[in-house]
Amino acid sequence: MRTEDLRYLQLVERLRRGQCNHDDYELLLTRVVGQPSAGSLSDTPWNKGAIHAAAEMGQPLMIYVAEDSCKGKPIEDSRLVKKLLELSDYKTEHLPGLLPLVPGMPVILTQKIAIELGLINGMNGIFRQLVYEEDSVSTDTISKTFPSNARYIRKPLYVIIEIVRSTIGSNFEQLGSNVVPISLMEQTFPFNIVDILLQCIKVKVKL
Q: What's the pLDDT at 206?
């Protein structure tokens, strides 16, 4: 059966050439029928790849912990923080509360960063390093999903990404070819705080 959807036809053409971008990914999400089998990147089976890769490298798994705030103020209630970290990615604009990171894992840029360097939405890259404040690292277990030696990072500064295809003309100081630092970006998403607070109250009553 042929389709007359121009956006979808353009997607298929880019797929044939191996040039799909993030907009194509978002379009495909609208064609998914039924509920996803995994609600978060920190859930099985998505997290197992990162756990296995870290074990093979003999390194503790790095997990970036989202810093949630409400109306510009940090959320301090520990029960509410826990509930927010457990929210499905599909309720947080595809932003996981706990993001496992392993050097060498593939990544994709979802925003335009520097058009002149080819750092645009949909560009493929390879995660190389997370630079963070040393005093923000904790080994206290936040999720039983991850190994007991996992390191939880709360104050990252920037990530170092190797861009597979880029127009970068010269190397950054102390970095290799096509390797660039990318600073953090904030993103907001709406959620029903009442429902989450009610869940916290239920937990407190049970305790």
A: 42
Q: What is the DSSP string of 93-137?
A: TT--SEEEE-TT-EEE--S-SBGGGTB-TT-EEEEEEEEE-GGGE
- According to DSSP, the β-strands at 137-138 and 151-153 are antiparallel
Q: Which of 178, 185, 100 is nearest to 146 (CA)?
A: 100
How would you classify the pairing of strands 62-65 and 151-153?
A: parallel
Amino acid at 147: P
What value does the mean pLDDT of the chain take?
A: 77
Quote the tokens at residue 199: 């869940």
Report how far residue 192's alpha carbon sits from residue 190's, in angstroms, rounded to the nearest whole number: 7
pLDDT of residue 153: 92
Structural contact between residues 135 and 80, judged by C-beta atoms closer than 8 angstroms: no
Q: Name residue, tokens 């029928």.
A: 33
